[in-house]
Amino acid sequence: GIGTDVIGRERDVRHDVICGGMRITQDTWCGKYGTLGAIGLATAANTHVAANTPLLLTNHHVAHSVGDIVGHGNICDSWCCECCDIGRLTDAGLTNRVDGAVGTLRPGVHFSPDILGIGATRGTGIATIGMIVVKYGHRTDFTRGRVTDDDATIDRDDDHAHFDHQIRVAPEPGFDKMTDHGDSGSVYVEEATRGIVGLNHTGTDAGIAKGSHIADVMDLFKIDFPVTGTAGAIPLVGIPESRVLEPVMALEGDLADTAFGREWADLIRAHAPEVRHLVNHHRAAKVAWQRCQG
Fold first, then answer.
1. 144: burial class by Cβ within 10 Å (0-12, 13-18, 19+)?
2. Digit-coded pLDDT (tens) for 17-71
3. Which of 21, 157, 189, 279 is the right S-S partner for 116, CB 3.0 to 4.6 Å?
4. pTM confidence score
5. Helices of type H across the chain
């Protein structure tokens, strides 16, 4: 059947620079992830933020709670104070043409308009039948496919969403799938021009990708994708897919070596949501946490 491409819980990773292709979530201490497709700029018609404000793009079924934080991992497996928080959702929509959401980046977050495995993009374009496109998603990483339909109708099984005028992309030889669970929110980029042409939101068991035309996404959310780099961003052609939180993993590994350590690890996991709430919302706990540096 046809379903959304989100994925269940995995170990958190951290990135020094936020860019397209990275994992994104609004779930806290649980379980569904998608992909941050790309970072664009708000247009003058955007009523939620000022013109030229950097905006992250993903799917509505990945992040839909407007006003709430979004993160690039579990918020948060490192058991600290919102270190995975990268911004807040400003708009989300599920229409007959778009499954999308956008959000602002938190002050101090370093970002790039580039996409992992692809590099710099060159504005936008229009998906047409026969076009070769590439994408980078959290689950399948870099994939390459061919547009086989630019006016498809989709009835999604898991949430019964209906879409018209959609893009269908089949994987090219050398790739078993164009998309899989966890790739929701990634963007299709025309290989020849590096223009963004679509927003991935649905996949089939055979790995066929389906998504919205980027023009519909831009019109709904009043977002644009510039040809050149964004002022204030860190130029980036390509960076490693992920860098694991080594200290946390080392500690977790040490605890797992003994029965006593495993008991402590279980206690931490059991009470982590309560601790996180206190650290972020209880003044006395927040002060003590910061003074002790976590």
1. middle
2. 889 999 998 876 546 789 999 999 999 999 999 999 999 999 999 999 999 989 8
3. 21
4. 0.73
5. 214-221, 246-256, 259-281, 283-291
